[in-house]
Amino acid sequence: MASQGGDSSSGSSGGSGRGSGTSRGTQSDWEAASVRSGRFTEAELPRLRELAKDAAHGGRVTKGSWEEAEVGLGLEKSGAVRGLQRSTHPGEEFVDGARRSWDVKAFRSNNFDLDTAMANMRRKLDGGIDVMMDSRHLNADQVAKLTDAVERAGWGRRVLWWP
């Protein structure tokens, strides 16, 4: 997690509380919320469970890894990626059927800083890891600014946006 951005990716440092199952609900709560959102069905829960097992955390499912799974499955359902699997590399969340590495970024509105977000993404992209951007926790203005900055940086084909 990024010290500023509330980034939900593995291998970062910061404070989104990914491992805190008590104050942030249980897996069954997350499953119910995924279905209630209308983005996923009961039939898709096994796939979400599979994608949520974070190898970087001993295969545990946390609130953060569940959110990452939602992003991955959401992008897979849209056809943006195919054949996702959880990565065993701690610096990335997924590897797709084309062997592309993916990290999920999820910045938060309350402490969003464009320059910090871009630097965080640049580290991944420079390391050969593409980015799945979870925009659920940003407001429309922040998404627009980040989208514009990503395009100006020439990263448009390496960053996927969800939802």
Walkthrough of the structure:
The protein has 5 helices and 5 strands; from the N terminus they run H-H-H-E-E-E-H-E-H-E. With 163 residues, the protein is of the alpha/beta class. It has one domain. It has a 5-stranded mixed β-sheet, sandwiched between helices. A hairpin with a 7-residue loop joins strand 1 and strand 2. Helix 2 packs across helix 3. The longest helix has 16 residues. The chain is globular, with a radius of gyration of 15 Å.
In terms of per-residue confidence, which ranges show pLDDT below 50 for 5 or more consecutive residues? 1-23
- Helix content percent band: 25-40%
Instruction: Determine the mean pLDDT.
Output: 87
Distinct helical segment count: 5
Would you count the extended β strands for me?
Answer: 5
Terminus-to-terminus distance: 20 Å
| Element string (H = helix, E = strand) | HHHEEEHEHE
Instruction: Provide the structure class.
Output: alpha/beta
Using only CA atoms, what is the Rg? 15 Å
Q: What is the general shape?
A: globular
The largest pleated sheet is described as: 5 strands, mixed
Q: How many structural domains?
A: 1
Strand content: 5-15%
Strands across the major sheet, in which order? 1-2-3-4-5
Brief overview:
By secondary structure, this protein is of the alpha/beta class. The protein has helices at residues 27-36, 45-52, 63-78, 114-126, 140-152; strands at residues 85-86, 94-95, 101-105, 130-134, 159-162. It contains 5 helices and 5 strands.
